[in-house]
Amino acid sequence: MDREANPISSLSRASKKSPYMLLLVLLFVVMVFGLYICFVSFKQISVSLKPKEISILGTAGPPCDTHEFQLEEIPYVHFPHPKSYSREECKCTPVRLFTILSMQRSGSGWFETLLNSHPNISSNGEIFSVKQRRSNFSTISRTLDVVYRLEWVSSAAKNDCVAAVGFKWMLNQAVMDYHRQIANYFNWKGVSVIFVLRRNLLRRLVSVLANAYDRDAKQINGIHKSHVHTREEADLLARYKPTLNVSALIPDLISAERMMRDSLEYFKTTRHMIFYYEDLIKNPKVKHNATFTLAHLLYHKHTYVFISNIFVHSYYQKLKSFLEYQSQNLRAARLRFTSNPFLNRSIIGRKFIGG
Ligand SMILES: *[C@@H]1O[C@H](CO)[C@@H](O)[C@H](O)[C@H]1NC(C)=O
Ligand SMILES: *[C@@H]1O[C@H](CO)[C@@H](O)[C@H](O)[C@H]1NC(C)=O
Ligand SMILES: *[C@@H]1O[C@H](CO)[C@@H](O)[C@H](O)[C@H]1NC(C)=O
Ligand SMILES: *[C@@H]1O[C@H](CO)[C@@H](O)[C@H](O)[C@H]1NC(C)=O
Ligand SMILES: *[C@@H]1O[C@H](CO)[C@@H](O)[C@H](O)[C@H]1NC(C)=O
């Protein structure tokens, strides 16, 4: 009896102890589970933190081959997967992302037209002229994501084989307010910055005033024209001579210059390029032919290196053979080609245009 009762009594003793045992076991299980969750989520974070296309630009599809690119080029090469359509046979066509940072009346509209004359470059205009899109950084980054995922709908949108996508952004459209976050975004996503600025700020101011006047006067057939396309139109608009407020003149020029200088400072960590309108205009080909297209600009050797670096890889290859074929000194050609001008932050547009 006793021997039979013993197991029962020992069992009941065990069940008295068991709340503690169970608690310990439960605690252990919770701890292990917690650690596991931490481990898994860290692993996921570290995956999604990998730069380039993997994060915002989509995850679908097998990875594209990046062997052909130079190492320093890889952060700037993307293979976006738009959600709303398929890039079809061009899904492994690399896409370069860019932003044209500029100020009103500095030649950015004209520069953008040059870019858009290329069949595979898509520059989507002044998308942040709409206030809601720039009301805070989360709306800004959401807008940028859509553009760089190749899902922005505009007249400049091209085919599935787009090789470079971007837009122009005026410095006074929240660029200066959110410069830190924007520069981080650019560095993070591998966006190249093209500054298009104007040296002569007095002329810029005259142009700003003339443009403001035309908004009401609509001098050409009752239509407001921000950008003229013929000599006649230009002459007509130039007849208006704005009156400058002398007491506001110097402060205006100073603040414009400060904005220019600050923006260069804020974005110096990004991969960037600086074009001055005056230098572009001095290029004899641009000067003598208003319908001058990007192809001409591209075929100017040094500019060509720059543009092809950010934009079209196939051009890069063509340039390589061009330089190697043309040059008497093969080594010099190779040297010039392999030194990436973008990595030299002190180089300004003139060097490429003038050289
Ligand atoms: C544009 O892209 C297509 C498809 O990748 C390519 O065949 C064509 O050569 C490109 N055009 C230029 C001018 O680079
Ligand atoms: C950002 O702006 C949008 C639109 O104006 C607004 O809906 C949203 O709440 C704002 N977000 C933050 C974090 O302020
Ligand atoms: C000229 O500029 C000054 C300083 O900004 C301003 O106080 C004044 O009202 C302006 N005059 C006119 C006619 O706009
Ligand atoms: C100007 O450039 C356009 C476009 O490249 C070309 O078709 C035209 O023949 C050029 N005009 C002159 C006068 O060179
Ligand atoms: C960068 O550009 C400056 C100015 O043109 C030049 O003096 C310097 O040698 C360049 N540096 C490199 C590494 O190419």
Automatic annotation (TrEMBL):
Highest taxon in the source lineage: Eukaryota
Keywords: Membrane, Transmembrane, Transmembrane helix
TM regions (residue ranges): 20-42
Matches recorded under PANTHER family: PROTEIN, PUTATIVE, EXPRESSED-RELATED
Name this protein carries in UniProt: Sulfotransferase
